[in-house]
Design brief:
Strand content: 15-25%
Structural class: alpha+beta
Order of helices and strands: HHEEEEEEEEEEHHHHH
Oligomer: single chain
Distance between the termini: 122 Å
CATH architecture of the largest domain: Sandwich
Strand order of the largest sheet: 1-2-3-6-5
CATH class of the largest domain: Mainly Beta
Length: 366
């Protein structure tokens, strides 16, 4: 009887092994369309995570402009950051207007933003915006549609639709899921780690001195911080001229630009040099402002007189004509721009040093 029972058990185990082998073979050689079936929610979380895609990507196209939006990772955990990359490719002669900073992304915390523009081997312009975002909570999230505008300046093409200022290309909404770190089925009730705490010990005789030191540190810390901040600002202001002068001298020693791209790069570098000098020397913090907004901020600075402000208005607007309107100045105007920038650096340096020297001389005389 024992032998027959062992034999029947062995036959049952062999039948089960055959059934498992058949099921494995049917899954292995199933048609590819099986991947499109709904996901089995009974699978373990680790197996489902292994099958999840590494990133999401959406593409959109309108005429000579193609856009690609990519989000990675595709399955973030709460506390992780996600990287959103917007890449727009446009044919030569297309003037692109990328989405404004943070457009429709106010629900996320923006940790990093990197814009970039290049020209590929076929002569097309490739503009890229890369965001590092932090989702605010777990659950279903989405990257909303993004608006890209452009005008068509190619020969024989309409610049914009009739009655409109530009063409519009809108990307698709990109949903994704942020995984919670709370285990499934966990209780929402918060319990103390320990039910009973021992009473605090009596402080020793040193505690009044410790409290006094802490109070002194609290009072002195803001003063020390303000002093260090003022010293750094003064050092940056004093070195601003030397940095700008070195960059201008290096730019002056280069061969003068001849082609459209060289002239454009030359005026981009020259205008950035002047802006950086103004920001460091006069603390005009406006790196993301347009030219008109920057000029409005500069006009309120007490360190720049009317002649300096007049130079900035003419110089920066002329540089914008080269950068955005494809204006090609003659060689003598390039030389004049270098000379005017050099005079501006020297004059503003002398004026500000004289203004700082006057109060010190008055104090010494008194």
């Amino acid at each position: 009887m024992i032998a027959r029972r062992d034999s029947s058990d062995f036959a049952a185990r062999r039948s089960s092994a055959r059934l498992v082998a058949l099921l494995a073979a049917s899954l292995l050689f199933a048609p590819l369309s099986f991947a499109a079936d709904p996901v089995d929610t009974t699978k373990p979380a680790t197996e489902a995570a292994a099958e999840a895609p590494a990133f999401f990507e959406k593409a959109a196209e309108r005429g000579p402009v193609q856009a690609r939006v990519r989000l990675e990772p595709a399955a973030p955990v709460i506390g992780d950051t996600v990287t959103l990359t917007i890449e727009v490719t446009a044919a030569d002669g297309i003037d692109l207007m990328m989405p404004e900073f943070g457009q429709s992304l106010d629900r996320f915390s923006v940790r990093e933003f990197v814009p970039k523009e290049a020209v590929d081997a076929s002569g097309k312009t490739v503009s890229t915006q890369r965001y590092v975002l932090e989702p605010p909570l777990s659950g279903a999230q989405a990257i909303p549609p993004l608006l890209i505008e452009f005008t068509d300046h190619r020969p024989g093409q309409r610049v914009a639709p009739e009655g409109e200022q530009s063409y519009e290309l809108v990307t698709e909404r990109m949903p994704f899921e942020v995984t919670s770190v709370v285990p499934a089925g966990a209780s929402n009730e918060l319990k103390p780690l320990r039910e009973h705490l021992d009473p605090l010990r009596e402080p020793g005789r040193l505690w009044p001195w410790l409290l006094a030191l802490l109070a002194l540190a609290a009072v002195a810390a803001p003063l020390i911080w303000r002093s260090l901040k003022a010293a750094r600002a003064e050092g940056r202001r004093r070195s601003a001229y030397d940095v700008a002068r070195a960059r201008l001298d290096a730019l002056s020693t280069h061969q003068r630009p001849a082609g459209e791209d060289e002239i454009d790069n030359f005026f981009v570098e020259l205008s950035a040099l002047i802006r950086r000098y103004l920001e460091d020397r006069f603390e005009l913090r406006a790196p993301e402002f347009t030219t008109e907004e920057f000029l409005q901020v500069a006009s309120a600075s007490p360190d720049l007189d009317e002649s300096h402000q007049g130079f900035l208005r003419g110089f920066l607007r002329r540089a914008d004509m080269v950068k955005f309107a494809r204006f090609l100045p003659p060689p003598e105007e390039i030389e004049a721009a270098l000379a005017a920038a050099s005079r501006f650096l020297d004059e503003t340096r002398q004026a500000t040093e004289a203004a700082h020297a006057s109060p010190q001389a008055g104090a010494a005389h008194a």
